[in-house]
Amino acid sequence: MRTDPVERFLAVLDPEQREAVGGKPREEQERLADAWERELASDDELDTLDELSPPAAEAEAARRVLEGEAG
């Protein structure tokens, strides 16, 4: 099991997103991973989804973080 937040974050991204985020400086990757972990911890909808499918909840949180970066 991965324990590094950046590795965990990168693992839930689709290949294209993983490549884009993987090409960013480590500091930026850490900032995104921290935002991802905060999103997972703070959103009640994700808590419900996490009970049904933890990978789906992680992927949804990652999508929201990256969408927030773009918009």
UniProtKB/TrEMBL annotation:
Residues 42-71 are annotated as: Disordered. Residues 60-71 have a biased composition (Basic and acidic residues). This is Addiction module protein. It comes from Streptomyces fuscus.
